[in-house]
Design a protein that fits this description.
It is a single chain. The protein is mostly beta strands. It has three domains: 9-194, no CATH class; 197-334, no CATH class; 343-509, no CATH class. 9% of the residues lie in helices and 37% in strands. It has five helices and 27 strands. It has helices at 33-36, 57-66, 415-423, 434-442, 460-472, and strands at residues 9-10, 15-22, 39-49, 73-74, 83-88, 94-101, 104-107, 110-113, 115-126, 138-142, 160-164, 170-178, 197-210, 235-238, 241-247, 250-256, 264-271, 277-288, 291-303, 316-320, 332-334, 343-350, 359-364, 375-381, 394-400, 484-490, 505-509. The strands form five sheets. Strands 2, 3, 5, 6, 7, 8, 9, 10, 11 and 12 form a ten-stranded antiparallel β-sheet that branches. Helix 3 packs across helix 5 and helix 4 packs across helix 5 (460-472). The protein is elongated and about 105 Å long. The protein starts with 8 loop residues before the first strand and ends with a strand.
Length: 511
C-alpha cells in the first residue's frame, strides 16, 4: 500500500482558505438572455487561515488532540500547491493549475455559466516535481464532506452551493484541512480512493524446453539471438510470454516480451485507501497444430499487502518443460507442452492388441501438425468397472496427463504421475506382458485383482510395478524424450463431472 509523503507529524494542524471568486463590471440589473448564457471566469485565490481566524479555534485544538499520534500533532506540508482537483455539478474530476503571485497561490480561471452550481469535491495537490506523472502526486489538503469527522471544523463543508452572477463580484471562501494518510476516513471522501495510486513492478523470465526445433520454424522464436546455437532436435529457448494484469476482476493491462524472449517487466497500480485483489495470467507462445498461439498456463493471485516471491535475483523465473537443474529449481515449473488436438474420433479396432496395449485403437479426424496423428495406437483402459464398445467410432475430448487440473473432476488423480513413471521405467521389468501393465493401471481404480478376461488375475509383476510407482512416482516429472499418457474422455463431458460416462482410455506419446 502506498505511503503518502504528504505531511510530517509535527506540532499543529493548519486550515487553509481558498477564495472562489468571479468579477463583473455590470450594474445591479436583471439578467438579459445574453448574460444568462454567458460563461464567466471563475478562479480560486488561496490564503492560509490561522486557527484564530477560523470559525472555532478551540475546535481546531480539539481536532489536533483527536488526531494526535506519536506525541505530536498534524502539520501542513511546506510543499507548494501545483493544482486543484474539483468536481462541480456531478461532473468527472476537473483539474485547474495553481500559480503564485507575491507568495500567494491562485488558480487559473475556469468557466462557469451564470447561475447556481454544486461543488462536491475540492482537493489540493503537489505534483512531486513530476508534472507528467500523476502516480506519485501528493494530496496536501481537502475540504471535508458533511457528515464526516472533520465537517464541524470548517465553516462550510461539502457539498456547497455556489451562485455565480454577472452583476457583482462573487467570492466564495473554501476552507481545507491538511491531509495525512491516517486521517483519510475523517474527510468523507467519495472518489478520492481512485485518485491516489502507486505504480509497482514485477519481473518475469521463463525457459521453454522445445522438443523439436523444426516445429517452431517460422515462429517468433527463430528471431531470438540464441536460436541458431541450438544443436540436435532439442533447444532450451527463452519463452515468449504475455501477462495479463487483472485487478478486482477487471483486465487492466497486458504486457509482452515480444520475439526476443527477454525478461518481462509487468506494471500494476495499487490504489490507496482500498483493498486491491490482483491476478496475473501467464500466456506462452506455443505451437497448436500448425499455428503459433499464446496459451494460458498459470495464474498468480495476491493482494496489495502481498506479492509474488521473487527469489534472490528479483526476477520470478520459471520453465515450461523439465530442462532445468534439479539442484537449483526455478521459482515455477510448468509441465512440458504437448501439441495436442482438442478432440479426435477413437475406435477400438483390435481387442487383442498387436502393439503392446490392452487393445489397438484407431484415431481419426486429427488435423496435421500435432504431436498426435491419425493412425493405430496401443491403448489401455483406466477403469475395470466401466465398459466401452469395440468397432464403434466415438468422439473423444483429449487431455494431457501432465495437466491434471484441466481434467474433469472424476479423472483428477495422482495415479497419472505414477502411470507416467511406469511408462518411463518399463526397462526395470524385463519380460513384462501387456496385462501386467493393464493390471497395474486397474489397481489404481479399485480392482480387486480377480480375472477379467482377457486380463488374468493380478500378477506379482503388476503388484511390484504399483509398489515401485508408489515409492518412486510421487510427483514424477516426465523428462525430455520421455513418455506421457494422453487421456481420452467422451466428448462433451463437463469439467464438473464426478463419474465417467464411458470408459476412460489412454495411449502414450513422447511429450
Amino acid at each position: 500500500m502506498k505511503k503518502i509523503r504528504n505531511f510530517s507529524i509535527l506540532l499543529s494542524l493548519c486550515l487553509i482558505a481558498f477564495l472562489f471568486t468571479t468579477t463583473s463590471c455590470k450594474s445591479d440589473e436583471p439578467l438579459s438572455t445574453a448574460d444568462a448564457n454567458k460563461e464567466i471566469d471563475v478562479s480560486f485565490s488561496v490564503s492560509n487561515v490561522t486557527s484564530s481566524t477560523n470559525s472555532g479555534a478551540s475546535n481546531v485544538k480539539g481536532m489536533q488532540k483527536a488526531n494526535q499520534s506519536d506525541g505530536g500533532d498534524i502539520t501542513c506540508s511546506d510543499k507548494l500547491a501545483s493544482y486543484v482537483k474539483y468536481k462541480i455539478d456531478g461532473s468527472d474530476f476537473r483539474v485547474v493549475n495553481v500559480f503564485y503571485d507575491a507568495g500567494t497561490p491562485y488558480t487559473n480561471a475556469i468557466k462557469l455559466a451564470a447561475g447556481t452550481h454544486t461543488l462536491s469535491e475540492f482537493l489540493v495537490y503537489n505534483d512531486n516535481n513530476t508534472p507528467n506523472d500523476v502516480s506519485d502526486d501528493i494530496l496536501l489538503s481537502a475540504t471535508p464532506h458533511t457528515g464526516s469527522a472533520y465537517a464541524s471544523y470548517v465553516t462550510a463543508p461539502l457539498n456547497q452551493t455556489i451562485t455565480v452572477t454577472v452583476d457583482k463580484k462573487n467570492q466564495f471562501k473554501l476552507e481545507v484541512i491538511c491531509y495525512t494518510p491516517k486521517t483519510f476516513d475523517s474527510f468523507g471522501f467519495v472518489y478520492y480512493t481512485f485518485t491516489q495510486i502507486q505504480l509497482k513492478q514485477l519481473w518475469f523470465f521463463a525457459d521453454f524446453c522445445i522438443k523439436n526445433k523444426a516445429d517452431y520454424d517460422g515462429s517468433l522464436y527463430t528471431g531470438q539471438t540464441n536460436w541458431t546455437s541450438g544443436t540436435g532436435s532439442f533447444i532450451d529457448a527463452p519463452a515468449i510470454m504475455k501477462i495479463e494484469v487483472w485487478r478486482n476482476g477487471a483486465l487492466q493491462n497486458t504486457f509482452s516480451n515480444s520475439y526476443q524472449g527477454e525478461k518481462l517487466g509487468v506494471n500494476y497500480v495499487d490504489y490507496v485507501g482500498q483493498t486491491d485483489n490482483y491476478e496475473l495470467k501467464l500466456f506462452i507462445l506455443v505451437r497448436q497444430g500448425t499455428a503459433f498461439n499464446y496459451v494460458y498456463f498459470k495464474s498468480w493471485t495476491f493482494t496489495d499487502t502481498s506479492t509474488i516471491p521473487e527469489g534472490t535475483d528479483g526476477v520470478i523465473d520459471g520453465v515450461l518443460g523439465n530442462c532445468y537443474d534439479t539442484s537449483n529449481p526455478p521459482d515455477f515449473i510448468l509441465a512440458p507442452w504437448m501439441n495436442l488436438p482438442t478432440t479426435a474420433t477413437y475406435k477400438i479396432t483390435n481387442t487383442t492388441s498387436t502393439l503392446g496395449g490392452y487393445v489397438d485403437a484407431t484415431l481419426s479426424k486429427i488435423s496435421a501438425g500435432y504431436d498426435l496423428a491419425n493412425g493405430v495406437y496401443a491403448s489401455n483402459c483406466a477403469d475395470p468397472a466401466v465398459t466401452i464398445n469395440s468397432g464403434v467410432d466415438i468422439d473423444m475430448d483429449i487431455y494431457s496427463s501432465l495437466y491434471v487440473d484441466k481434467l474433469p473432476v472424476f479423472a483428477r488423480s495422482t495415479k497419472w504421475e505414477r502411470i507416467n513413471w511406469l511408462y518411463n521405467h518399463l526397462s526395470w521389468y524385463p519380460g513384462y506382458h501387456w496385462y501386467d501393465v493393464q493390471g497395474f493401471i486397474w489397481l489404481y481404480n479399485g480392482w480387486n485383482g480377480t480375472a477379467l478376461s482377457p486380463v488374468p488375475a493380478v500378477t506379482a509383476l503388476s503388484n511390484k510395478m504399483k509398489a515401485d510407482a508408489d515409492n518412486y512416482g510421487v510427483g514424477y516429472k516426465v523428462p525430455p524424450g520421455g513418455w506421457a499418457s494422453i487421456i481420452f474422455i467422451k466428448a462433451g463431458t463437463p469439467i464438473t463431472a464426478t463419474s465417467a460416462p464411458l470408459q476412460t482410455v489412454m495411449i502414450k506419446v513422447d511429450p
